[in-house]
Amino acid sequence: PGLLTGYMPGLAFQQEFPQMVERFGVNILSADSHPGRSCEDNVADLVAAMESGIGNAPDPEGTLLTADDDPPVPGDVILMGYSKGGPDISTLLIARPDLVPRVRAIISWAGAHGGSYLANDIYGKVKDIPNAQVVDRLFDDAGGLVRKFVPVGPVPRLDRRLDEYDVKGAMYSLTTGRRDEFNAEHTATLDSYGIPTIYFTGSTSAREVTYFNLQGELELDRYDKLNDMQLTQEQATPTTANAVHAAMWHATHWDMSYDTW
Question: pTM of the prediction?
């Protein structure tokens, strides 16, 4: 999942995943990715899914499976990353090369491999604010900075895994500078794994986004008219040589993952 997963009115793909299980007989597990910390820190959540079966079940409620539920442990996997989930996966594969043989393929669904110009803007406005004040600054009615990334107006109280929050770290992970740095250092290694990668992108227009997203969409128009309101086509493209572009959907970044909102 992407940034702030678990704090929306519903989970990403909450209706689609149960249908896929019924139609294709596949096993699906959504990693319990922390909603507000860096890609490096979220490696632990992806490892928990792969090694212990911890995460959200593919049912309409998105039931959270914990170690107490003794969930089945996945075998070989196809990893699918939405938005920040894309660089989370790349970070996992660099941090835990021992897991690479179990990864049969990667699906990037509007993955933020090149970061986002909008994240640059948000990080620039919060990087010097004390951590204790960052959440208030992001979500207050006056600032509302995070509305560019969240598909609702008010955000529910962020009262889960509070001691793990690192919102500045999460936003820094999505800056173009940080992603460029990571890609320059690790793309050759990711290429050497030879994991088949299929990626999907989105494209929308100023007439199709919510009013509080309009400024962000227009900002991205300066770089790429075919943006999804959060990412340009280039930013949603994996840097690995064996990545194949399957489709560009006519959709906003949120509409690619969430039910009608």
Answer: 0.91
